Amino acid sequence: MHHTLIALVEDKPGVLNRVASLFRRRNFNIESLTVGRTSEPGTSRMTIVVDSDQAGAQRIGAYLAKLVDVLQVEELRAGLAVVRDLALVKVTVAGHERATLLRVVDETRAHIVDTGDQSMTLEITGEPIRVDAVIARLKPLGIVEMVRTGRVAMHRGDTALSATQYS
Amino acid sequence: MPIRTGAQIIWECLAHEGVQTVFGYPGGAILPAYDAMLEYPIHHVLVRHEQGATHMADGYARAGGGVGVAIATSGPGATNMVTGIATAMMDSSPIVCITGQVPSKMIGYDAFQEIDISGITLPITKHNYLVIQAEEIMPAIKEAFYLAKAGRPGPVLVDITKDAQQASIEWEWDPRPVRVRGGQSHAPAIRPDLAQAEALIRGCTRPVILAGQGVIQSGATRELVAFAERIGSPIALTLLGLGGVPSGHHLNLGMMGMHGEAWVNRAIQEADLLLAFGMRFDDRVTGNLKTYAPNAKKIHIDIDSSEINKNVRVDAGIVGDLRETLKNLLDLVKPADHAAWTTYVDSLKGEVAVRDIQALPDNGHLYAAHVINDIWRITEGKAVVVTDVGQHQMWEAQYYHHDAPRSLITSGGLGTMGFALPAAIGAKVARPDAEVWVVVGDGGFQMTQAELSTAAQEGIKINIAIINNGYLGMVRQWQEFFYDRRYAATPLRSPDFVKIAEAHGLAGFRVEQRSQVREVVQRARATDGTVIVDFRVEQEDSVYPMVPAGSDLHAMIRRPEATVLAETGADKG
Fold first, then answer.
1. Which of B29, B168, B204, B572 could be stapled to B74 by a disulfide with Cβ–Cβ 3.0 to 4.6 Å?
2. Which overall architecture, per CATH, does domain A2-76 show?
3. Would you call A70 an interface residue with chain B, using a CB distance cutoff of 8 Å?
């Protein structure tokens, strides 16, 4: 079972290491982890997807909250959050009708972000399940290279996570 | 503003934090700090190994309630601290470790004595710092002292580069209190569920309070006793909780768990409500979780929210300081008297006669239990006893009855052999007026025996009782029970401990007969300076009762029926 944890953390060297080390030490497997700046200076935001049962997700959330560099931890509930994943997929051009390729691109709502002599690079953004589906469509065409960001997520509606209340 | 070097700032900060003694060992990367030390009125105890420094800081903190400080150089100095830091982490002991680091420009180049100690200690500290500028020293040290004590206490390490120590900056002490944004310094994750707890307490008929070290750390003895008396509940203690409730109190059952008394574990298994106060349901306390207290509802109060529902699912979880929480709860609960239950639990103590070892005739054999019980009687239960890890540790817990918080200091969570002697030195420094006894095995003593020189150099008076059975006794016991008596690597040949004492300019005595115990213990107490007493006890005695690891708590290995204490172990042909 996947659980999505959001952690607001101090924007300091070594924080990613502390978080990743905690998951390793407590024997949890990170499915994906993204980290980036927030609108608040000095605060970064991590979206961590972990494969665990509910009790385990609660446990790792509680450990996470104890890290001195972690300001806030919340578990996002499925259905109550906007979740996005982004993939860059380089597919081979050789051996395909250009029209076939463009039709697949069009049908999957992928964006062509770069082209080369032998390949074309597509960007796919959406719910992880949609990204999975698009990649499955592209696979028969011949995927040369692929990268995914892992999930980023946010509460739906007006609920907002902010670190300012702690500064 | 005055000009200060980073090295001076370290000592300025320690002085402002109220530090009077530090335990340490100098070396290249910490030399600037040691040079500056001479200008400050802080006493430095030169240890013989940096592990000793951390255990001393730990013992100092546990005995006195303050924060212990250990100092070492980079590289091996720092890595030698790892065992002591982990010990403090597992037992929630507040210590601050300061290490030197190679100059910042050399970090990452495998310089001489460079080691990534902040990386190494990541999982065994509450938090740690790598300081590469003099300006960062004060914030790091102030936060370290704050974090060591805040919430659930624990070790914090501050690694300071040599160039940060050498740099001069304009500096003055910032008296403002530390503010930390994260680490749960705000809103506890679990809402205090006092009403739910009150309802469970009102509905119970067979309650047992499980009290741990949290009682001692939050100073909640009085509140706990009042609470137990109010709701009419017996109290079982964890190893680290011993002393948290006076041993003679009528509701105090004694120690629970693997080597707890049978009646304590039975009471827990038959309870309908467990009230866990400042303890963490360690596996040595619960045995098999699937069969643990099967009919009991559970209330858990702990300062660390990550402990709630960690090992045992509870019906009411309350995150907070135990003393404050008990005060609040005391106002809510109604007086109750579970006379039938407490009478029943008392009846389980019928076998206490077996434990009355003083009543057994002297058959010429010397048992650890006798030794420890005699030390208890002679010291009137008022000594601070520091134990190591193994059989003697469990016998001490069974036969030395502790009445005061911070009167037993022992490595519980990590089970660190070699802890006792250095921790006792730290304890004596924290409480110079206390009578300090080390109870240690012949194995564990030799692990950190070098600190005997430290005690001698410092002129520290502690009494060391070596429970010498010629084996790594607890491992031998497991081999006897679970490995068909195949004593792999447990027979132990030791040096002449009396001569070891004499070589340090200290007094040493040997005891081989029970009849000698009292007199020699008295002589040890009356002798100036640290004393070693080498108690040559029965070699193959075992600690009973015992719940094998992972077994049901009520499935205990009992002392063999056909024998009583004074006959066991006497099987060496």
1. B29
2. 2-Layer Sandwich (3.30)
3. yes
* Facing residue for A68 by CB, picked from B119, B182, B308: B182
Hey, are the CB atoms on B184 and A17 less than 8 Å from each other? no
Identify all chain B residues contacting A25, using CB atoms and an 8 Å cutoff.
123
The residue type of A79 is G
User: pTM of the predicted model, to two decimals?
Assistant: 0.95
- What's the pLDDT tens digit per position in B50-73? 999 999 999 999 999 999 999 999
Closest residue of B to A164, CA-based?
A: B181
Supply the CATH classification number for the domain B357-542. 3.40.50.970
CB B326 within 8 A of CB B318: no
ipTM confidence? 0.90
Residues B310, A59: C-beta atoms closer than 8 Å: yes
Same topology between domain A2-76 and domain A82-152: yes
- According to CATH, the superfamily of the domain at B3-170 is Thiamin diphosphate (ThDP)-binding fold, Pyr/PP domains (3.40.50.970)
Running DSSP on this structure, what letter comes out for residue B489? T
> What confidence tens digit (pLDDT) does each residue in B251-269 have?
999 999 999 988 999 999 9
**Cα separations (Å) of B550 from B210, B281, B291, B292, B325?**
19, 13, 10, 11, 32
Q: Check CB contact of B122 with chain A, cutoff 8 Å.
A: yes
Is residue A27 within 8 angstroms of chain B, CB to CB? no
E strand or H helix at A38, and its extent? none
Structural contact between residues A84 and A126, judged by C-beta atoms closer than 8 angstroms: yes
- Specify whether domain A82-152 bears CATH 2.60.40.1930: no
CATH class of the domain at B194-350:
alpha beta
